[in-house]
Design goal:
The chain is α/β, with parallel strands linked by helices and 329 residues long. 35% of the residues lie in helices and 20% in strands. Helix 10 (273-285) links the parallel strand 13 and strand 14.
Length: 329
């Protein structure tokens, strides 16, 4: 079979289907994931094909969803929990941080909780309050959790399956504004041959500036690289893919070649992922840097109303401005 062109949403749906087929202990649970197929239709058709004992419509109670998943995981199941929107995860935050992240450690390695917590995150869809959050730093800061984010249909298809197979609890961040973007997915490629789950990937080679992004901002960074090429500047774009643990070997190698680095994410800059990246890159690549590591991020405010969200979100122009500033040192 040739590679198929799928939307990210369809790629996730197909990956979930493969996992359900592969392992009878995989269970999908969340608000409206069954009959409706999820708000974004990511689980469309799965309850019909696998039954309502494996694709479960839960009450509107995020803490209850995660709490139930913990019990199921301890008993040998592999729950995949959908949090309907990023801003709805906070009622479950106590369960995730106090229980999910700690269970393996407090049991001295005797108990594993292989839970995947799917969270559509980020802005750009014109949504109302609580529907456009970027909570990744809360979870990446929590020891005991792994945090990943896909940016393309291909990664979505393989990463969701890899996460479900992992014995560790994983927060799986899906860039909701990219659900409808299409890309090639090799459905015949064996899961063991796919790019490793906790490994970054260089998605565009370049020589002048290293641009780091993940999730929804990878497309923005690639667009900026294409625009910069017209001005004679070569941007290398690296998709981090995994936020905890960070995989920075290729990042360090890139920055040592380019001497400049710009980090892009939607979340506010204050004590964010970009700050951690800047600190580590400065520590490891200090003598190679021609300028400070710069950040292009959302602002340190609550997410704004939909009519002005484009002023809040990092865009091509703001990335290119940071590239210009990096050459000004």
């Amino acid at each position: 079979m040739m590679a198929e062109k799928l939307t990210m949403g369809k790629a996730l749906n197909t990956g979930l289907r493969r996992s359900l087929e592969r392992d009878p202990k995989v269970i999908i649970m969340g608000e409206d994931v069954g009959k409706l197929g999820g708000v974004f239709r990511i689980t469309d058709g799965l309850q019909k094909d696998f039954g309502d004992d494996r694709v479960i419509d839960t009450p509107l109670a995020e803490s209850g969803i995660i709490g139930t998943a913990i019990g199921l995981a301890i008993r040998g199941y592999r729950p995949v929990c959908e949090i309907q929107f990023d801003g709805f995860v906070y009622p479950a935050y106590d369960q995730i941080v106090s229980q999910v992240a700690k269970m393996h450690y407090r049991s001295q390695g005797k108990v594993r909780v292989p839970i995947v917590i799917r969270i559509p995150f980020g802005g750009g869809i014109g949504a109302v309050e609580h529907h456009s959050e970027s909570p990744e730093a809360y979870f990446a800061h929590t020891a005991g959790l792994k945090v990943v984010s896909c940016s393309s249909p291909e990664d979505a298809y393989f990463m969701i399956q890899q996460s479900i197979e992992s014995d560790d609890p994983i927060v799986f961040l899906e860039p909701k504004r990219r659900y409808w973007e299409k890309g090639e997915v090799d459905l015949d490629l064996d899961l063991s041959a796919a790019h490793p789950l906790h490994a970054s990937r260089t998605v565009r080679a370049g020589s002048d500036v290293t641009v780091l992004a993940y999730g929804p901002m990878v497309r923005t960074a690639l667009d900026a690289a294409s625009a910069a090429e017209e001005d004679g500047r070569s941007l290398e774009v690296i998709d981090l893919r995994t936020l905890s643990p960070l995989d920075l070997g290729s990042v360090y190698e890139s920055v040592r070649r380019t001497g400049r680095c710009v980090v892009v994410h939607e979340a506010p800059s204050n004590i964010g992922i970009g700050a951690e990246l800047a600190a580590r890159i400065t520590e490891e690549c200090f003598y190679s840097l021609e300028s400070p590591v710069l950040r292009v991020t959302g602002f340190d405010t609550p997410y704004p109303a939909a009519r002005v969200e484009e002023e809040f979100l990092p865009d091509l122009d703001r990335v290119l401005d940071a590239v210009d500033r990096s050459f000004g040192w």
